From TrEMBL:
PROSITE patterns: AAA. Residues 324-343 have a biased composition (Basic and acidic residues). This is Detected protein of confused Function. Residues 319-351, 473-513 are annotated as: Disordered. One of its GO terms (molecular function) is ATP hydrolysis activity. InterPro entries: AAA+_ATPase, AAA_N_dom, At3g28540-like_C, ATPase_AAA_core, ATPase_AAA_CS, Mitochondrial_chaperone_BCS1, P-loop_NTPase. Transmembrane segments: none annotated. It catalyses: ATP + H2O = ADP + phosphate + H(+). One of its GO terms (biological process) is response to stress. The keyword GTP-binding does not apply. Its cofactor is Mg(2+). The keyword Nucleotide-binding applies.
């Protein structure tokens, strides 16, 4: 009888040393064994163990199949576990949360947490496999992250059905609640990385623009807001009519009339992310498609100054017999386009894009455009007449919105925003002047900005009146100059053909203040 404890002790010692040896051999094996052999060995060990274990494991991988996009299931599980693990997990990682005011905790790699659902216990682990790859001819390790849940086989039906449904649903809701909206850009200095890095880089989207603060005709504003809200609530409708849930907006008008501001207001209204697509930095149509695939739903894809981004204007060039003024205008236009292109590229050259019009049309409504859903595509331009009609036809660009010079109604919105004024004796003078000269909302806004702490509302209104009067004088001077030039031309040549030029110049004058 005395022998029993010592036999037991011996047995434990033996088991302990066997286990230690086994672990040591396993560690050496993992360290030095070639990757392929190790994978092979692990695969069969798992299969053998699977026969005896009463537990079932399900893995949710970050990238599946074509590996172009993070799996939605993984993203939902990540959010679900982030919210539920912070109370039980021992190793957590912290990231800045919404509005940069708090830290959001989530489980760290290789951490385990337990969840309970209708009496069943579920164990989750965050893990990754590291495998070698040679994407660009050099050795590089690829990390494949995944979550694995383990549960007893008697709960198989409930876990694979109701529980996973609950995880995905709650995960998606958490994501919407915690979502920091992002402003993405396709960086021009993008280098092809391994698959797990995305083609977009982003920062937190914090633009303060709102429709309420925009200087727009009230009826226009109401119409645009209703259109956007209806779109965002029309999932069922789009599905019923068999149309992809996306909508194209073309914003056009002179510089400083609020096109970019409106995009920010749209994003804020609908709580969407913004993908600011720099077309000149896109290598070719294939890259354009990859960028599209990586965009998520609830987003606005923006191409600003579409007329400067690509040569989509070729079809519209006139042939032969151009008037001098036309040539000048074209030259100036070319310079303007080049300057804008350069500023878009951050002055760093580039512009070697081989994206074609057909590539862009496919981007907007080709088969690939159906991935994701709930997306707005917005183009902006200063010269709508220069765009190819195919690009902006209804169905592609469903809604065309003209943003024009500031109206008196628009001015009143700005006066309320900037000066907290709803009425003032000087308003009548401003109304009168605004009927005579065009002024952009950007210029009105600039005049209404107090320039020193001592500037009061009246001083700002006077500043606007001066700006309007100056524009009026300049416009009158230009008209006088042009009249002089044209009467000289008529005198020199005496041909009625020149009258067209006069008209052309007059139109130009009325276009710009
Ligand atoms: N309709 C508007 N309502 C309120 N503010 C405006 C409006 N339009 C312009 N602004 C003001 O003018 C500034 C410039 O406007 P914005 O950048 O939106 O013009 P844009 O039409 O995009 O010009 P561009 O064609 O040169 O890109 C904004 O920062 C905003 O303060
Ligand atoms: Mg703009």
């Amino acid at each position: 009888m005395e022998m029993v404890p010592s036999t037991m002790a011996d047995m434990w010692t033996k088991m302990g040393s066997t286990l230690a040896s086994f672990m040591f051999i396993w560690a050496v094996f993992r360290q030095y064994c070639p990757y392929e052999l190790r994978r092979y060995f692990e695969k069969y060990t798992h299969t053998i163990m699977g026969y005896f274990s009463p537990y079932i494991k399900i893995s949710v991988h970050e990238f599946t199949g074509d590996r172009l996009k993070r799996s939605e299931a993984y993203v939902a599980v990540e959010a679900y576990l982030s919210a539920n693990s912070s109370k039980t997990a021992k190793r957590l990682k912290a990231e800045m949360g919404k509005d940069s005011t708090n830290l959001v905790l989530s489980m760290d790699e290789y951490e385990k947490v337990t969840d309970e659902f209708r009496g069943a216990k579920i164990w989750w682990v965050a893990s990754k496999t590291v495998s070698p790859s040679r994407p660009m001819g050099y050795y590089q390790e690829q990390e494949k992250r995944y979550y694995r849940l383990t549960f007893h086989k008697r709960y198989r039906e409930m876990i694979t059905g109701a529980y996973l449904e609950h995880v995905v649903k709650e995960g998606k809701e958490i994501r919407v609640r915690n979502r920091q909206r992002k402003l993405y850009t396709n960086s021009p200095c993008y280098k092809w990385p391994s698959y797990k890095q995305t083609m977009w880089s982003h920062i937190v989207f914090e633009h303060p623009a709102r429709f309420e603060t925009m200087a727009l005709e009230p009826s226009n504003k109401k119409d645009i807001i209703e259109d956007l809200v209806t779109f965002s609530q029309s999932r069922e409708f789009y599905s019923r009519i068999g149309k992809v849930w996306k909508r194209g907006y073309l914003l056009y008008g002179p510089p400083g009339t609020g096109k970019s501001t409106m995009i920010a207001a749209m994003a804020n209204l609908l709580n969407y992310d913004v993908y600011d697509l720099e077309l000149t930095a896109v290598k070719d149509n294939t890259e354009l498609r990859k960028l599209l695939i990586e965009t998520t739903s609830k987003s606005i894809i923006v191409i600003e100054d579409i007329d400067c981004s690509l040569d989509l204007t070729g079809q519209r060039k006139k042939k032969g017999g151009k008037a001098v003024a036309d040539e000048d205008k074209e030259k100036m236009e070319k310079e303007r386009r080049e300057a804008k292109e350069e500023s878009n590229n951050g002055g760093g050259g580039g512009g070697s894009s081989r994206v074609t019009l057909s590539g862009l049309l496919n981007f907007i409504d080709g088969l690939w455009s159906a991935c994701g859903g709930e997306r707005l595509i917005v183009f902006t331009t200063n010269y709508v007449e220069k765009l190819d009609p195919a690009l902006i036809r209804r169905g592609r660009m469903d809604k065309h919105i003209e943003l024009s010079y500031c109206s008196f109604e628009g001015f009143k919105v700005l006066a309320k925003n900037y000066l907290q004024l709803e009425t003032h004796p000087l308003f009548d003078t401003i109304d009168g002047l605004m009927k005579e000269v065009d002024i952009t909302p950007a210029d009105v806004a600039e005049s209404l900005m107090p320039k020193s702490p001592l500037d009061n509302a009246e001083k700002c209104l006077w500043s606007l009146i001066h700006a309007l009067e100056e524009s009026k004088e300049e416009a009158a001077k230009k008209v006088a100059e042009q009249e002089e030039t044209s009467s000289k031309q008529i005198k020199d040549h005496g041909t009625p053909a020149m009258e067209d030029d006069v008209k052309h110049h007059e139109n130009n004058v009325s276009e710009k203040p």
